[in-house]
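User: What would this chain look like folded?
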Amino acid sequence: MPLEFCHPTAPHEKLKLPEWYVSTLMMDRALDAVVRRVNKLDRFHDIPYLAGYSLDGKIIYIDRHMPRSFKFRGRTIETDRFLILHEEVEKTLIDQLGLHYLHAHQIATRAEEAAVRAAGVEWHAYDRFMQKFVKRIGDERLKKVPKDLDLKPYRDEHDYDLLQRMLKCVRAGNCPKGFHVQDLAQAIADLRKHVRQHKTCGAERGAAIKRATK
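Assistant: Here's the prediction, encoded as structure tokens.
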């Protein structure tokens, strides 16, 4: 991984606090450590929601039209390193801990936000810049998608959003003839819970532990 992605002083400046103490410098070092472990960064494809990863996790994809930096209060802020952090954390949590995408995404976003704030950048300014370049599923700009892109995040996100819309519609009283609103709402809620938990190895381990402790 090119060293220009890494903070110029984080690996060299001596810490004046214990290494376990929360600090911006320590966050820079942690971010550098993650970035250096990336096998390959690909910026030649169209990627839904700006960034993603290959099925085997060896490639991090960033959308080819995503700018590498933006201006914040007169500073040039490089953004690739923050996206890399998000994708690496998310993929690791899904593959190694068996978390559902929706849960892994939440944790990865918090890590990304912490890294952005540690760089002295307001999260809202960063996120507002990012949202300008988001390509969603079905977007006509998605013309060159990599064959090995892991589609699980997009599938899970779509399924959960669809169920949310269905539940909102049913609760508003829009129910097909022959169905009871309460029964249909409960069925959708149960399925929504199942999708959120997902049948991952992590969920199965949790269920096994719960059964064993009864």
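The chain has a mean pLDDT of 79. If you want, I can go into more detail on any region.
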